[in-house]
Amino acid sequence: GAIRAVFHSWMNPRASVYRKMHDIPESWGTACNVQAMVFGNLGDTSATGVAFTRDPSTGERLLYGEWLPNAQGEDVVAGIRTPMPIRAIPNREDESLEKRMPKAFATLDEIGERLEKHFRDMQDLEFTIQEGQLYMLQCRSAKRTGPAAVRSAVEMAKEGLISKDEAII
Q: How far is residue 47's CA from residue 54's CA, in Å, rounded to a whole number?
């Protein structure tokens, strides 16, 4: 069904025109990724959320973001439920992922740090926790405010993550 449809789409008229416009040989074929689904809505030991390796407003180097227990990814952005802070903050410590699922929080923090070093840039992370096990869904360079861009560039240069010349760009 669905996999077959992906492969058949290679020959549809729009795809043929696109390939001709961009000089892509028909012989290259197409790919189809198949991956397991993970569920953040399997009870109190499951969750979903989004995080940044640095605060996108200030550039401060700390894991920042929000999460929802017993939820799927779209629930965080749909506005149906109020997300909770990833990191323990005053008056909301008990809501934090850091307090409720410390092992998953620590793993997320460590993976975020590794991804930032690999991509040499602040990262925007999406994750799901299924029955206590953290799964990374996606990462990309994070959008940030002007002040956050300046601070993160200066700090990444001091950390040796990027050069001073790259920090200026």
A: 21
Convert the pLDDT of each residue in 96-127 to its tens digit: 999 999 999 999 999 999 999 999 999 999 99
Angle at 41 between CA 36 and CA 47, to 5 degrees: 90
Give the span between the Cα atoms of 97 and 123, in whole angstroms: 18
Q: Max CA-CA distance within the chain?
A: 60
Rounded to whole angstroms, how far apart are CA atoms 92 and 81? 16
Query: Residues 38-50, buried b or exposed e (16+ Cβ, 10 A)?
Result: bbbbeeeebbbbb
Report residue 29 as tokens: 């074929």
The amino acid at 90: P
**Six-digit token pair at 33?**
């990724």
Digit-coded pLDDT (tens) for 59-73: 999 999 999 999 998
Contact 57, 145 (CB under 8 A): yes
Q: 34 burial class (0-12, 13-18, 19+ CB within 10 angstroms)?
A: exposed
Per the CB < 8 A criterion, the answer to whether 29 and 9 are in contact is no
Instruction: Kindly report whether the global pTM for this prediction surpasses the value 0.90.
Output: no
| CA pseudo-torsion sign 95, 100, 104, 105 | positive
